[in-house]
Amino acid sequence: MAGFMSLLDVSIVNVALPSIQDSLNASAGGIQWVISGYALTFGLVLVSGGRLGDVLGRRRMFLIALSAFVVTSALAGAAPTETTLVLARLLQGFSAGLLTPQNTGLIQDLFRGAERGKAFGLFGATVGISTAIGPVLGGLILAAFGDSSGWRWVFFVNVPIGIVALVLAARLLPSVPRKGPVRSEIDVPGMLLLGGAVFCVLLPLVESEQGGLRTLWWLFGVAPVLGFLFVRWERRTVRWGRPPLLDTRLFTSTPGYSAGATIGTVYFCGFAGIWLVFALFFQQGLGYTPLESGLAVTPFALGSAVSAAVAGRLVPRWGRWLTVAGLGLVAAGLSVVAVLAGLVPEHRIGLVTVLPLLVAGIGGGMVISPNTTLTLGSVPTRMAGVAGGALQTGQRLGTALGTAVLASVFHAVTLSSGEFTSGLTVAMFCSVGFTIIALAIAIAQLCSGRGSAANTQANGDGKSPRVLHSGY
Q: Are 108 and 384 within 8 A, CB to CB?
């Protein structure tokens, strides 16, 4: 429930932007920040949120972050002005960034072996559904409550769901006593350096629609400097015998973690950006309503939800083969969409793309949950929160980059050709390109023997390499 809400709010607000602008008389820049602000603060604190869960206890952080998310959702829904809404969205994204790593951390703590694969399968289904169903749910809410006030219920809907989740979490999640002083476990310089590096990458990307790439390009040069300083600081922290924010040996000594994180980041470059392109194509190009636009891409969501739940159970048997097959289906499905967009009449595109989107969705479900299980399989439970946060930070960076690239390509081709179908075709092939890169990485890992089913079963108990234990 918590994961669904936090990820849903990345996409559900898109269909409500015109209503928000009319209701609050908001500027174009302010409206952009309703979307960008949430994505920015969400991605900014994922790793720090994971580390806080490792230190303070995941149940405690889950309850704190979920409470904050419910409150900030209510503030966003009740916002009387543009400025208040943007501030509420920034705080809401911050809360979601603290909340999301607790999901993967709790799964790491509470499940072992095949049961962990099933749990990650359900989590993967949640990721797929929440990402794809946002436009549909947003359209339904606007249709039910009207354009003038319906946008407020896009935020208010989180309140009752969040309260139920809080009650269930308080009753069901186990409490683990905290050991030692908290201050000595928190790496504040590491948080600031990593947060600065992520900020420098995300800000130009989330502001791309407002010319961010043109005016803020220099931040891309600052990001590697901060990243280099972060790595140096973390290595020095380990040498001093202090707990780091993110032990860099996680990437060098944990089997499959680096490759899995890279696959997730590259896949989300191609996967997350297609929803904005579809919304622009169906609504601006074909004149669909927000609800009709959302329903047109529902086959992907349905296929992803079912296959993610099933694939999670098959990870111990098939390992990285699932990811390879899934990426192949995504590339095939989106390639067919790209070809059909240029061959069939515009009024039939929504109908003829149902089957290829379903195939792509089935493949997408076979990517997210198995990749998460395989990537985190050898991570020690003490680092589960920060490892999950780092994995999802990569996905948020991929989402921002992919959305900026695919939307820019769609706009550029549409303007130059004067045809929305041409823009859709080229954008889909760009998405396929990202997917093929992720597929190549997955095949390389499979060929190296690190993604085999036997290796997955060997690491399925959550045990970790000795070198990582020595640092703690």
A: yes
